[in-house]
Amino acid sequence: MSAEAEFRVQDLLSLFHFEDQSKSEGIEDFLGQLLARSAEWFRADGASLFSERLPGTFVLSAQHGPLAKIPDGATIRSGKGLAGSAISKGLPIIVQGESDESDQTLIGSSMIVPLIDSRHKKLGVLNLARSSSAQKFDDTDLELAASLGQHIALALSNAKLFSETKFLGDTLKVVIGSLGFALISLDSNGLINHFNPEVVMLLGKVPGSNESFTEYLFRCPNAAKDTLVQAAEFGLEGRRYRKRVTVEGRIWNMSATPLSSKGCTIAIQDVTDLEHAQREHDRLKRLAEVGQMTATIAHEIRNPLTGIRSAAQMLKDAPELCE
Question: What radius of gyration do the chain's Cα atoms show?
């Protein structure tokens, strides 16, 4: 049976849907889905995918099916071997294997499909295998592989980009959450779209989802509302803002920074303890300087006194020296 009969356009399009990707195991889950679909399309009993890790070097990333028995860590190098030749030339090839209809574990034929995107970047190698009892891959399969390979490569590229973006986003959230100051992000309409835990600690209330920053401030029990509203106005107008205020005996540094999206970020840092520590450091430094100056003066006074005492002792011991 031709592989064309097994191919459905909606199955291919489904590889480009990543709405639930954040709830899955990430790129590994996607690779498993891709291989399962590819095996179905080409009526393959085994499928494996090698992804580029270093330029020209492709490492086994996933495999699927009973004929997929490639050792972990296996690699393909561009230009070396049949698979390396296929990726180097950018063309799928068919490799005929052993024929034994009684042995379902033998590979009767296999097809090597290089995955190259529209920018001619070599992303990986897709290997498909049929058992010796199945119909061998033919030119129809090869033609379909040449066409589908580009779409699969695009889906793989998108999935990797999505995974990397999600990773960077998660990393950024962890970093923002670990900052030692409050950070609030506003969209162009002045609605809160992100905040870190320090915001709740300083302002005393949890912001609502997409709540207006102004409305949120008037729910907060602090005396810095006017300053924060002004900071937001400056930021949303594309201007930077910085001010130092005292709130209930605490010293806050506030700043607003415009974003290219027409929104802005507002940072609030409680520097009370820092400034107290700085003042204490300066006090101790001044005391140390006074102590050093006192020691220097005492040393300068002690030097002539030592000479006077020596002379007086000499006169006492030998008064005839004064005659």
Answer: 37
**What is the pLDDT, as a whole number, of residue 21?**
46
Token representation of residue 232? 């937001």
Give every CB contact of residue 37 below 8 A, 6+ residues apart in sequence.
Answer: 11, 12, 14, 15
Alpha helices per DSSP H over the chain: 9-14, 27-41, 81-89, 139-177, 197-203, 213-217, 225-236, 272-317
Q: Which of 256, 264, 267, 251 is nearest to 181 (CA)?
A: 267
The residue behind tokens 């950024």 is 172
Cα separation, 154 vs 156, whole angstroms: 5
The span from the CA of 61 to the CA of 127, in Å, is 12
User: What pLDDT does 26 receive?
Assistant: 65
| Residue 124 dihedral angles phi and psi, to the nearest 5° | 180, -170
Q: Which residues pair with 76 in a beta bridge?
A: 58
Answering whether pTM is above 0.70, one says no
Evaluate whether 139 touches 50 at the Cβ level (below 8 Å): no
Cα–Cα dist 79/84, whole Å: 4
Phi-psi region of 181 (alpha: psi -120 to 50; beta: other; left: phi over 0): beta
Q: How far lies 130's CA from each of 29, 39, 67, 68, in Å?
A: 23, 9, 8, 10
Give dist(CA 228, CA 211) in Å, integer: 15
CA distance 33 to 14: 10
